[in-house]
Amino acid sequence: MITLSVAFVLAVLVIVRYRLGRLRMILPSVPLILLAATLLLSVFWSDVPLYSAERLRTYGPVLVVAWMVGSCLTRAEFRRIFTVLSLISVVVVAALIAGSPAARAASGADAEGWHAQYSKNGLGIMLAFWLLCLLVLARNRFGVVLMGLIVVLSIGNQSRTSQLAMMLTVAAVLGLAWQRAPANAFERRMRFRVLATGVTAAVGAAFLLRNYLFELAGKDPTLSLRTEIWQATLPEIAKAPFLGHGAFAFLEVDSDSPTRHMVARHFNLFVPPHAHNAALDLTGQIGLVGLVFFLVSAGVVLLRALRLPVGEVKDFALLFLAFIAVTGLVESMFLGPWLVVLVLLDGHLSPGARAAAPSGVLFRSAPGPSLGKVG
After folding, report:
1. pLDDT in tens, 331-346
2. Which of 36, 58, 128, 290 is the right S-S partner for 165, CB 3.0 to 4.6 Å?
3. Domain ranges of the chain
4. CB proximity list for 346: less than 8 A, separation 6 or greater
5. Whole-model pTM?
6. Which of these, 319, 218, 326, 333, lies nearest to 274 by C-alpha position?
């Protein structure tokens, strides 16, 4: 719902602001084309072909519109469009969160069931994403007010997974700002080493103290059954490891796929709505082939972003890729909103796209090598 809302807004902006004359006739990156082809062709080997075709009938145009819009935006327009979209999406999420207590009350004893938990985490992760967008791309009072609203909504949503994602997002933005602050070459190198050491130490401490952290976060060692879900989905992935079970035909709620029935037997009729791991979920849908195409597409965007001069779009692209990598460990959103944003970035950073030099810099650095600069 949120993805489609964003896509329709993008389409209106293309038609009204840019018209067809501003659209560039350039192609996406080769890995992205191969990924799109795998998605479309998966209908032919899908466990539920009609459902896959129906979902792709609406999802495909979303990707096309996102790429067309990205290719015709300047850097300044890119920043403005994400600010507007953040407002629209936060309003949509706020309405969904406001309606969730009534939905849980109406569901009776199953009010705290897994599907409610999934919705809560999914909405919370989207809030964390829009917080990232505003932190990097919106530097005005409107952005500050909207960020405050996001924090309030996150508290009301009560998803500890998304709240942790928000804290990590803020820490990443502040760390990048510190790294980019004016300094000589030696100081910048030392800052980078301090950041790398700090991240390594934090990961090591989290692993050693994982049981305490689980208790502190109100989680059990299975991460709210996530590890058991991963174990249950692996045998299903092994049945079609290279091409998967078809787009949206793995564990999606409305697909009624054979995989859902097999996992239901494992959990005694309880069926998770997805694999709760982006790599496993994507592999289950379009196989290792599709997963490789997705990762290479993300790598192309990463390399293009690294070649950009220091600026808002570069910071956003780098932080977005880190964001989906971290949240993908526990949530499955690669084939959904994250692919839409990845496609938009691919179009925006493509050679021959309309984007000009950055109009503004979020994190300025002194002359010399900067974080992420290539060659």
Report:
1. 888 888 899 999 999 9
2. 128
3. 2-100+114-181+225-349, 188-223
4. 28, 29, 32, 67, 70, 297, 300, 301
5. 0.83
6. 333
